[in-house]
Amino acid sequence: MSVLAIHPGAYYHIETLEAPRYRNHFDRLVRPEELPSTELSEHQVLFIPCRTPADRMAPHAAQLRAYLDRGGTIVATGETAWEAFLPAIHFTPQPTNWWWWLTEGADLGVRIAAPGHSLFEHLGQADLTWHLHGWFDPPEGVEVLAVNEGGKPILYVDEVTTAGRMVITSLDPCFHHGSHFMPATTRFLDGFLPWMRKVLDKGKSE
Fold first, then answer.
1. What does the buried/exposed string (b/e) look like for 149-158 if buried means 16 or more CB atoms within 10 Å of the residue's CB?
2. Residue ranges in 47-182 assigned as alpha helix (H)
3. What pLDDT, on the 0 to 100 scale, is given for residue 67?
4. Around 60, how many Cα atoms within 13 Å sit in the side-chain half-sphere?
5. Residue 12 and residue 178: Cα distance in Å, rounded?
C-alpha cells in the first residue's frame, strides 16, 4: 500500500502531512508542480488535502484522469474547487454557519447515509460535524456516505465515472486540524486516514 499526498505548503498542510500525528499515513509528498515527473501508478491512493489551490492542480487534470482510468484512487477533501481537475464534480456552495453550535440544542443536520460502510467502523456522526460549505450532485450510481441537513451529499465514493475511484468530500478536516481549531476535525482524520490505508488499496470500497 502506498499513499501519495499533494503538499501545497500552507501551514495546515504542514501540520497534517508532516507532523508526527499523521505523517506515517503518507508514503510520499509532492508539490502540485512535481506531478508531471511523478509516476502515479506506483501509488494506490493519491490524497489531495483541503484548500489545495485549483490553479496549481488544473494543469495536471489529464494526468489525474489517466491515473483514474488505470484504476487508481483519488481522495479529495474540502474547499479545493475539485471540478477544475477531477471529472464529474458538480458542487453547490452554501452559506457557512460558523457558530451554529452556540445555540442550545442546535443540530447542524449532518447525517451518515450508509451506516454499514466500513468507514463508519472508524467514525461516528459527531466526527463529521463541524460546519458545512456546500453539497454535491454526483453521478447516478455513486455511494453516498454522508449528507447535509437537506439530504444532499457531502461525502461520497464514485466508482462509476472512471475505472478507478474517487472519494470526494466538502468537509475540510485538514484545514481545521492544522489550524488547531475544531476537535471534531482531528477525530475525523484519526479515523479516516487509517481507513484510507486499510481499505482503499483494495479493488472496491467496502
1. eeebbbbbbb
2. 54-57, 61-69, 173-178
3. 98
4. 21
5. 4
Query: Does the 3-200 domain belong in CATH 3.40.50.880?
Result: yes
3 state SS of 135: strand
Q: What is the structure's pLDDT at 95? A: 83
Domain locations along the chain: 3-200
23 vs 15, 18, 36, CA distance in Å?
9, 5, 23
Contact 120, 98 (CB under 8 A): no
Exposed/middle/buried for residue 103 (C-beta within 10 Å: 0-12, 13-18, 19+): exposed
- Tell me how far CA of residue 109 lies from CA of 112, 139, 149, in angstroms: 10, 23, 4
Contact 53, 59 (CB under 8 A): no
Pairing of strands 28-30, 111-112: unpaired
- Residue 117 in grid coordinates: 460502510
Residue with the three cell numbers 447515509 = 113
Which residues of the chain fall short of a pLDDT of 70? 102, 201-206
What letter represents residue 80's amino acid? T
Q: Is the dihedral of CA 91, 149, 204, 80 positive or negative?
A: positive
What pLDDT, on the 0 to 100 scale, is given for residue 201?
61
